[in-house]
Design a protein that fits this description.
5-stranded antiparallel beta sheet, single chain, 5 helices, alpha+beta
Amino acid sequence: MFTRFVEPGRLALITYGPCAGKMCTVIDIVDQKRVVVDGPEQLTGVRRHMMPVKRLSLTDFKCSIFRGAREKQLKAALEKDEIMKKWSETAWAKKLAAKAFRANMTDFDRHKLMVARKKRAKEVRGVIKKGKK
């Protein structure tokens, strides 16, 4: 059954545009295709603005706010329910963080990673070889 409804308080990931990759909260529903979202800006870097629902990926998390809530009320609701902490513990958020980390790796970091992988593979092969004898 579908449970991720577009509703005030729903946490969402912006998938396209200047704020792509940032988290936001649905504040108000304008019409069938557009919603008003807010970060709040100090927390996520997303200002309050209107955007199409197509550019959002809804999450399972929802904070208890009313339609058109102010930034102060939104921030209090997010802190009370610990929504951002719960989000950062999900596999989805961890995958996004790992992807960002890999994108920011230097050439030397990639080299160190390659060497570590080779070393680990060699040790695994050694253990398997001993186990077969």
